[in-house]
Amino acid sequence: MSFREIEIVTWKENACKAIGTDWMLVAAEKDGKINAMTASWGGLGVMWGKNAAYIFIRPQRYTKEFIDAADTLSLSFYDAGMKEMLGYMGRVSGRCEDKVANAKLTPLHEGETPYFEEANTVLICRKMYAQELKKECFLDEEMDTKWYENGDYHTMYVCEIQKVLVKE
Q: Residue 121 belongs to what H/E stretch?
């Protein structure tokens, strides 16, 4: 199967469902190796006049090293039958094993950006901005105490959506 490019405004998926309920894989490449992780936090919108994706990665995640090393990354979305794979990709560290191979994912590339043949939709993104969340910036202190008991604040990445690929 192949992918074709569409305009983001024609993508019919609800972003809250696609990210928060169905989950996505965030993938990047460093030194010829691909790593990916499941994410259920993030969003889509417009920033600085560009279609944008917002993702959040904790500092201890191995995938963060790949995201920090690359200029681009992919966000890929899957059919409901892939939930077990997505759970695995979120639980297991790529430091310990080759998650991509063990999940039986087939890497493809759009330019230098990796993504997976098993996806139904892929956003190819270019990083524009990164910033660590900070304790002192929480206006709702309950969010800090609920989600950051260990002080392991996410890094927020704002990325330009350069292409949207859908499976044909």
A: strand 121-132
Reading the block at residue 6, the tokens are 């569409």
Q: Which CATH class is domain 3-167?
A: mainly beta
Identify which of 24, 11, 34 has the alpha carbon closest to the alpha carbon of residue 165.
11
Q: Quote the Cα angle for 104-106-109, to 5°.
A: 155
Residue located via tokens 């469902």: 17
47-89, pLDDT tens digit by residue?
999 999 999 999 999 999 999 999 999 999 999 999 999 999 9
For the chain, helix, strand, coil in percent to 5 are: 25, 40, 30
| Bridge partner list, 114 | 109
Looking up tokens 């493809």, which residue turns up?
108
Q: How far apart are CA 56 and CA 12, in angstroms?
A: 23
Q: What is the longest distance spanned by two Cα atoms in the chain?
A: 48
With CA atoms as reference, report the closest residue to 58 among 42, 34, 79.
Answer: 42
d(CA 50, CA 163) in angstroms, rounded, equals 12
Using alpha carbons only, how large is the chain's radius of gyration in Å?
15
Q: Residue 3 has which token pair?
A: 């992918």
